[in-house]
Amino acid sequence: MSAPPATAHVEFRGVSKSYGETVQAVRELDLEIRRGEFLTLLGPSGSGKTTALMMLAGFEAPSAGEIFIDSRRIDRVPANKRGIGMVFQNYALFPHMTVAENLAFPLEVRGLAKAEIERRVKSVLDMVQLPGLGSRRPDQLSGGQQQRIAVARALIFEPKLVLMDEPLGALDKQLREQMQFEIKDIHARLGVTFVYVTHDQTEALTMSDRIAVFNAGRVQQLSTPNELYERPRTSFVASFIGENNRMPGLVEAVASNGELSVALAEGGGTLRAVAPEGRFAPGASVMLSVRPERIVLVTDGVVAPANEMPATIVQSVYVGDHIRLVARAAGGRSFIVKLANTPSLPALPPGAAIRLGWRSQDCLALDP
Ligand code: ADP
Ligand code: MG
Questions:
Q1: Per the count of CB atoms within 10 A, which of 40, 94, 127, 223 is most buried?
Q2: Is the CB of 242 within 6 Å of ligand 1?
Q3: Ligand 2 centroid distance, CA of 89 (Å)
Q4: pLDDT digits (tens, 9 = 90+) for 223-236
Q5: pLDDT per residue over 148-203, tens digit each?
Q6: What is the pLDDT of residues 21-31, one digit of tens each?
Q7: Domains of the chain (ranges, CATH numbers)
Q8: What is the chain's alpha carbon radius of gyration, rounded to the nearest angstrom?
Q9: Which ligand 1 atom sits nearest the alpha carbon of residue 217?
Q10: What percentage of residues in the chain have a pLDDT greater than 90?
Q11: Nearest Cα residue to 69 out of 157, 159, 156, 147
Q12: Span from the CA of 46 to the centroid of ligand 1 (angstroms)
């Protein structure tokens, strides 16, 4: 086989992993990870993210396929020879050693010089913003500080590739959000490649250069956060990343500019939509997807968008920066609408009649 392109830091080629006869954890994974990028494996629990990461780390062997780091095949290379730093969710420090001793230990085992060890311990403690805590014992650290030490420990070998598996899963929301930015910042400062696993879509969108969305052992889409959200290629991705209003329908016609006319399956007329992949012909079944924040209230005297639907407000929730409506349209179809909280917003009591509108380019036709 030919070597992968030089820009690829890591490449999975046709990698599968099965456990026994029935469990196919990862299926024919093809994935290129670029040098220096922050790539996230995102997907529901059980979709194969950890298995993929463990094969890269060297703690699981692929059942089929090949893995390359820097164009060198490594899927038979032992874990400790791959030059990878790792952070797990549940990280155990040696309780009887100080933080500095915990960090120094793996370096001492490898026989690094004392001065070099001291330099690296200081450098990684600075990196995770805990410069003064080297002499503490683990039980004198908060959960967030322990997690930072786990990150420091992953960096102490100065790896070119850092893997993290749900490292913030045990932390409360506020600390998790703070750590997301800190990890992102460390990535930016080090400039090395990070591969990060999470099931939390907000975390993935916040931190990543690119996201690989896993479902049932396969990558459904590999894109930037913006593209994943704006242009999901499958209805699984559209539903997993952010909220969306879904409507099944049948393609009636395809205009020369690619715009689709879609007859709604449960009544309510015909809508105009776009297909990100442009792959539907008249007669095809589709699932239309519209983001709640792309729906507007159509008022008199304003040019209506391509799609319009009368509806009744069922619920109206004040969320501060936006108003969240649940509205019911013809055929009992329910919509979620997020309206920015601006001074011009009218009163929106339950029972009020409104007109919902959205542009054709915000109405995505996806697989049913
Ligand atoms: P994720 O990290 O996305 O939650 P995993 O990679 O841990 O998913 O698991 C993928 C699938 O493989 C799941 O169905 C899981 O039960 C199964 N699996 C993972 N590890 C093992 C194992 N050691 N033995 C058997 N099945 C496993
Ligand atoms: Mg996992």
A1: 40
A2: no
A3: 10
A4: 999 999 999 999 99
A5: 898 999 999 899 999 999 999 888 888 899 999 999 999 999 999 999 999 999 99
A6: 999 999 999 99
A7: 8-233 (3.40.50.300), 243-366 (2.40.50.100)
A8: 25
A9: 10
A10: 77
A11: 159
A12: 6
